[in-house]
Structure to design on (168 residues):
């Protein structure tokens, strides 16, 4: 075996490679936010995301203040997340991802309470929307979004497939 080349026996399955490739494509897609900036969708620090299965049913809603890229990759590459660890979310059930970046919060420290209240409020709205649009009137989240009285408008979203035609 040549030095530096992956061993075919240890190579990840085709489906895993395809998911990783399409996930990078999704997260690297430009997103034109209302301020006129164009940033890769995965590079937004604050936002809410939803996963949809092969029937386009919403199956999970989450939030992050560490970067959409980091949080979504952690879920879908089966790294430690509560949802994956508790068997609530199987990364191979995810067909599409939709994200709602919060560009106005870009660069704000994750401990900022006003920003966290906005993020929690958006997660409540998106969770309620996902449940209402589900034919089962349920999603797989392990817990409800944080309670609160803050109300926020739903910002523009970005949605795309993370499953290739070959895998589908």
């Amino acid at each position: 075996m040549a030095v530096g080349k992956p061993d075919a026996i240890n190579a990840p399955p085709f489906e895993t490679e395809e998911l990783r490739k399409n996930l990078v494509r999704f997260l690297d897609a430009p997103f034109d936010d209302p301020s006129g900036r164009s940033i890769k969708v995965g590079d937004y620090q604050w936002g809410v995301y939803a996963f949809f299965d092969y029937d386009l049913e919403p199956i999970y809603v989450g939030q992050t203040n560490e970067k959409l890229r980091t949080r979504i990759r952690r879920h879908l590459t089966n790294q430690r997340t509560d949802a994956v660890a508790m068997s609530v979310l199987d990364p191979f059930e995810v067909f599409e991802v939709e994200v709602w970046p919060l560009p106005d919060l870009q660069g704000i420290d994750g401990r900022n309470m006003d920003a966290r209240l906005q993020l929690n409020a958006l997660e409540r709205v998106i969770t309620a929307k996902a449940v209402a649009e589900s034919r089962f009137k349920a999603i797989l989240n392990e817990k409800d979004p944080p309670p609160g009285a803050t109300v926020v408008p739903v910002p523009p979203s970005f949605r795309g497939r993370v499953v290739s035609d070959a895998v589908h």
